[in-house]
């Protein structure tokens, strides 16, 4: 009997080893050699000079979220180096996609091929200093959103009330402070006329204002230096970090009436664009105000905001009420503009005066100034739309098969471009099955909700995430409705892995345990025990520092966290870390709260008496090993598996299925569930594994009994 048992165990181990070996061999990538490459990827070495390539690479790295791919080498089965695939940088998906976007912005033929015309256009055209987001040709809309002023909602007025201030004694010499203020106030009034946002002058400390306006040159204190006359004219920070900086070395002026100055930069035009960033809009199509390149073809007297920008604002701050700012009881920029400069706003823009528009021309100024280039004429093209048909991008589809053979569909540097441009070839089309509904446990879940009913959420799983945008009509009754929520962006249409975490946080390599959005930063807690700090709201999302968890949160006794949440308590920013059945509360130190030290390494100190307590001491509800803690309509919730329940003892203690109430998964119901308060976690995979052993021993006992 003993001999039979040994034989059976040996055979079992051999079968498991053979199974694993077969699986690993099945998924092993094919080796592609240089002989497999077709001619579309071959580059003529005389096509572009090294200088042109270097200049364009530097431009894309600065403005187009471009990363130079790291060199790699294929390894053959016997361990020797196989033929190295040499595809020039200018023929790689990421580079060609960025070139295609630039050609579209400049109105040039869209080929994806770098040429000298594009290089000269990029060097001679004034633009915003904010980086351009990667553009998905299959996306249904043009405008793009980053964040909004969720804390500035005024329920009584049903508006968002922001304050502004100008930095004292910080104006350029070539334009009066009065002209600067008139131009900026005109831009603010224009946004007030087209949205539910209002700007009021801050009468206290200038640094306490929501929007702070100033001028600087070169390195000016925010890690995004200006480049002198021409090129980058200004940049701004996204909510809720409302700094707006103009390049002091530009020849600024205010275009009024029929003024016709081609070699200067209109302060109103630039301020209107940058304030759009301050309000949360990213760069958009070339016909919009939020295009990357400023449109200097008119004065502010009759300016009408394009529909694309209006739709973007409405999606964040609600449908425009149409209220006249001059008739409102609250202070605002339109009133200030009228009182200080006797300028009253018309319905279309900032002034009721008639306007004389400047002709669109290209003019070169004297040697002492920078070349001025007019806004490129929009080239009419057939733009792919998301009509449900799976296709590759028609501009680059000729390269997709070769790129797939080279492994770019799964290459860390190229896969995002491949997802947008070669989704059919790479098998990345949206699928009909509800993948988000098949996940039994998420790393973290976070959402934003405000009084207008705007609800957006992010469900993080491993190194990717799902995004949802719920329609206004279903957000207020989300937890009690028997029907599924209606979406502007449906998370069920996202395939796992399609939205990579590295797309927004490129230096975070492990799976996230918690994602915290601070006032000036993002903090990404990963499952390896690191906390990555990124700039929140800057001209680009930039990595700042990597910490160990105890290094950032002084005295924290563990390497990792289960979850984390940020809240405001008695006018203090408090971060609560959750681990097991304990909580640890921290507050920002003086250096962490400073607006001007955001690049310095920071730390958080423990709140006395709120360290290592039972989780029930937080809001009165017991919990252990929670996956996430999130806020919805000012109520905190615990999430464990797919069940979430109120973390506040004043709410009804019932569990609900996140798949029904937030994801709208078919087959789920609006019903209450038991609350998983106990410690420990289980998953479908662990349950399956745990069932294997009883079955093995059951059949083994039968076999041995018969032998």
Could you characterize the architecture of this molecule?
- This protein has 16 helices and 24 strands.
- The protein has 707 residues and is α+β, with helices and mostly antiparallel strands.
- The strands form six sheets. Strands 1, 2, 3, 4, 5 and 6 form a six-stranded mixed β-sheet that branches. Strands 9-10-11-12 form a four-stranded antiparallel β-sheet.
- The longest helix is centred in the first third of the chain and has 25 residues, at 2-26.
- The N and C termini lie close together (7 Å).
Can you tag this structure with a few keywords?
Collagenase (Catalytic Domain), 16 helices, 707 residues, four-stranded antiparallel sheet, Hemopexin
């Amino acid at each position: 009997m003993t001999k039979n048992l040994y034989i059976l165990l040996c055979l079992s181990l051999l079968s498991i080893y053979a199974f694993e070996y077969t699986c690993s061999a099945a998924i092993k990538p094919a080796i592609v050699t240089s002989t497999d490459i077709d001619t579309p990827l071959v580059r003529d070495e005389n096509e572009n000079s090294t200088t042109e390539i270097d200049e364009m690479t530097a431009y894309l790295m600065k403005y187009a979220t471009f990363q130079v791919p790291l060199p790699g080498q294929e390894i053959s089965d016997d361990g020797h180096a196989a033929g190295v695939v040499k595809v020039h940088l200018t023929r790689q998906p990421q580079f060609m996609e960025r070139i295609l976007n630039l050609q579209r912005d400049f109105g040039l033929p869209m080929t994806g091929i770098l040429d000298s015309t594009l290089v000269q256009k990029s060097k001679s055209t004034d633009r915003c200093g904010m980086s351009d987001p990667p553009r998905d040709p299959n996306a249904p809309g043009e405008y793009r959103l980053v964040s909004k002023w969720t804390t500035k909602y005024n329920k009584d007025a049903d508006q968002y009330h922001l304050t502004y201030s100008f930095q004292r004694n910080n104006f350029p010499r070539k334009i009066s402070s009065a002209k600067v203020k008139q131009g900026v106030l005109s831009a603010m009034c224009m946004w007030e006329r087209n949205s539910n946002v209002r700007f009021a002058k801050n009468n206290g400390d200038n640094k306490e204002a929501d929007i702070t306006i100033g001028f600087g040159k070169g390195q000016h204190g925010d890690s995004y230096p200006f480049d002198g006359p021409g090129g980058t004219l200004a940049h701004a920070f996204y909510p809720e970090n409302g700094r707006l900086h103009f390049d002091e070395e530009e020849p600024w002026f205010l275009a009024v009436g029929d003024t016709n100055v081609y070699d200067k930069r209109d302060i109103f035009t630039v301020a209107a664009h940058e304030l759009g960033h301050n309000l949360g809009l990213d760069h958009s199509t070339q016909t919009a105000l939020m295009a990357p390149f400023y449109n200097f073809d008119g004065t502010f007297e009759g300016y009408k905001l394009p529909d694309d920008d209006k739709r973007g604002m409405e999606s964040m701050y609600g449908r425009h009420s149409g209220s006249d700012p001059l008739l409102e009881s609250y202070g605002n920029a339109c009133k200030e503009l009228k009182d200080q400069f006797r300028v009253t706003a018309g319905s279309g823009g900032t002034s009721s005066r008639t306007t004389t528009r400047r002709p669109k021309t290209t003019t070169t100024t004297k040697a002492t100034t920078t070349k001025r280039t007019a806004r490129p004429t929009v080239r009419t093209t057939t733009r792919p739309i998301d009509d449900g048909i799976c296709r590759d991008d028609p501009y680059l589809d000729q390269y997709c098969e070769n790129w797939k053979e080279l492994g770019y569909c799964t290459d860390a540097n190229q896969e995002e471009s491949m997802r947008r441009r070669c989704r059919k070839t790479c098998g990345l089309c949206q699928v009909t099955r509800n993948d988000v509904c098949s996940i039994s446990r998420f790393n973290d879940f976070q959402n934003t909700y405000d009084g207008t009913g705007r609800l957006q959420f992010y469900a993080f799983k491993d190194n990717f995430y799902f995004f949802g945008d719920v329609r206004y009509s279903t957000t207020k009754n989300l937890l009690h409705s028997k029907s599924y929520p209606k979406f502007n962006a449906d998370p069920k249409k996202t395939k796992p892995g399609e939205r990579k975490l590295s797309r927004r946080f490129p230096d975070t390599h492990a799976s996230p345990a918690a994602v915290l959005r601070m006032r000036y930063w993002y903090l990404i807690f990963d499952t390896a025990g690191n906390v990555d700090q990124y700039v929140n709201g800057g001209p680009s999302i930039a990595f700042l520092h990597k910490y160990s968890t105890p290094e950032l949160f002084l005295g924290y006794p563990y390497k990792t966290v289960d979850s984390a949440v940020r809240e405001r308590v008695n006018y203090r920013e408090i971060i609560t870390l959750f681990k097991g059945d304990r909580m640890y509360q921290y507050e920002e130190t003086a250096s962490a709260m400073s607006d001007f030290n955001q690049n310095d390494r920071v730390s958080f100190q423990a709140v006395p008496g709120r360290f290592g307590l039972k989780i029930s001491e937080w809001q009165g509800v017991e919990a252990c090993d929670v996956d996430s803690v999130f806020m919805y309509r000012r109520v905190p919730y615990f999430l464990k598996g797919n069940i979430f329940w109120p973390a506040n003892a004043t709410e009804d203690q019932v569990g609900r299925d996140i798949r029904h109430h937030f994801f709208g998964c078919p087959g789920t119901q609006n019903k209450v569930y038991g609350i998983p308060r106990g410690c420990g976690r289980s998953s479908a995979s662990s349950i399956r594994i745990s069932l294997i052993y009883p079955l093995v021993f059951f059949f083994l006992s039968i076999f041995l009994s018969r032998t």
